Amino acid sequence: MKKILVANRGEIAVRVMKTAKKMGIKTVAIYSEADANALHVQTADEAFCVGPAPSLESYLNVDKIIEVAKLTGTDGIHPGYGFLSENADFAKMVTENGISFIGPSPYSISIMGSKLDAKAAVSKYDIPMVPGTEGAVDSIEEGKVIAKEIGYPVLIKASAGGGGKGMRLVESNDEFEEQFKRAKSEAMSSFGDDVVFIEKFITSPRHIEIQVLTDNHGNGVYLFERDCSIQRRHQKVIEEAPSIKISEATRKSMGEDALKVAQSCQYSGAGTVEYIVDAEGNYFFLEMNTRLQVEHPVTEMITGIDLVEQQIKVARNEPLAFKQADLSRCGHAFELRVYAEDAMAGFKPSIGTLEEYQIPTGEGIRVDHGFIEGQEIPIYYDPMIAKLITYGANRNEALERMKKAINDYKITGVETTLDFGSYVINHPEFKSGNYDTKFVETYFDDYVAGSSKKEHEIIAGFVAKHHWEKELTKI
Ligand code: ADP
After folding, report:
1. Which residue of 245, 249, 256, 270 is most buried, as measured by CB atoms within 10 A?
2. Which is nearest to 198 in space by CA: 166, 225, 238?
């Protein structure tokens, strides 16, 4: 493989190009009209505009992307995450054009792309699953009967779901109808597919996932776990590796089961098996993501393995150069997703120009980003500016470095999740590790309510003072 086209933008496009360069591989960027000055365009050896700003006309414009790949003599396409990364038709089209798709086969992608097909494939392997329906639930009446059997609270989930969309929590029979309709319509509008199913809602859950790596020669390893329990709207914001909540025996068992999940869909390349873990430490298979994850750097930090390099090697048909017994973990890593969002206003996107933008540097600090000072954050795409990653010999050192790095990160012009990150990592429950995926609702929402109350009190106080001064002048 001598030339790779990265069918993506932002930090992940820059990240993939970095490894390609290290391996002596030339890179091709694609970009939309909104991204003409983007960092990934500047980083690549060649760059081509593939259409106007809306993703459908540019980053999802498969015909144009293939045309650029052929024109440039590209021999591999890396899809990053999001956009076309889990699109089996695109993967097929790439290979049919004689280009390597740096990712799993269309078969693996399509099985794991449907949560119901994934459950069916995995069910043959004796892996713990969340109690729930095996197939689609079509009517409200049927759903109510099933929910009662499973026992409230339940989750209604979109089979084609992703990014926390099309998922509804139902606490009681009275709420069922409304939430069922909402889940179905959200699934239809987000994924063009309104198939939903029902799962038991695991109370006080943690989200723990295993990184797997498999090749085309029957070899596979797991690169331990990532704990991604700090989420907003069922989407991850802070991740860490390793998890301090699982024992060595559970880690091994989750890892071995993850390899069985990979086997169930003949997986090849880097993939992630997600589990939900209950308060008693029992784990249940959730889904498999058939691509590089946003949070892959924390695994790279504790294993010393470059996952993009491994993806490229597998796509070149090379066998894995290590076995499970060769792998070890060292130290601890955190990742904070730095979004252009106003955490104090319900994580609302905060679009604007990066007037001041300076990244932190120092020992154990890594920033994967796609922007430079003066650039605008386009409204068309995911508002992630960067991923702030810190590493330390132990959790405490990695946390201290995260504190310093957040402090040293200078961003003005947009609101960011940096202060939110600071709130979380300084929180006693986060420090002690006693939290679940509802951390934001349990603690941060109260903090926000408290702050706005304070603000109201200040304003009320100011108004009262002003009024009193006016009264005084009358005397
Ligand atoms: P998506 O594909 O939309 O990301 P997932 O199935 O991976 O959906 O779930 C995303 C998040 O939703 C999980 O990390 C977890 O916080 C929550 N979740 C999913 N299923 C359950 C469940 N059965 N019980 C409790 N929480 C769940």
Report:
1. 270
2. 166
Domain range for residue 223? Answer: 206-472
- Is residue 212 domain-shared with residue 156, that is, in the same domain? no
Q: Is the pLDDT of residue 469 over 80?
A: no
Q: What is the CATH number of the domain that holds 151?
A: 3.30.1490.20
Q: Is the CB of 207 under 6 A from ligand 1?
A: yes
At 431 the pLDDT is 96
Q: Is pLDDT above 70 for 255? A: yes
Sheet of 235-241, strand order: 283-289, 269-277, 206-214, 220-232, 235-241, 332-339, 384-392, 365-369
Ligand 1 within 6 A of CB of 164: yes
Whole-angstrom Cα distance, residue 35 to residue 375?
Answer: 10
Counting ligand 1 atoms within 8 A of each CB, the residue from 207, 209, 232, 439 with the most, and so the one to mutate, is 207
Min mean pLDDT across 121-135, 305-319, 386-400 is at 121-135
Ligand 1 atom closest to Cα of 165? Answer: 3
Query: What's 16's domain CATH number?
Result: 3.40.50.20
pLDDT in tens, 53-95: 999 999 999 999 999 999 999 999 999 999 999 999 999 999 9
Share of the chain above pLDDT 70, in %: 95
Sign, Cα dihedral of 121, 123, 128, 130:
positive
User: How many separate domains does the chain show?
Assistant: 3
Ligand 1 atom at shortest distance from the alpha carbon of 130: 23
Q: What pLDDT sits at residue 138?
A: 94
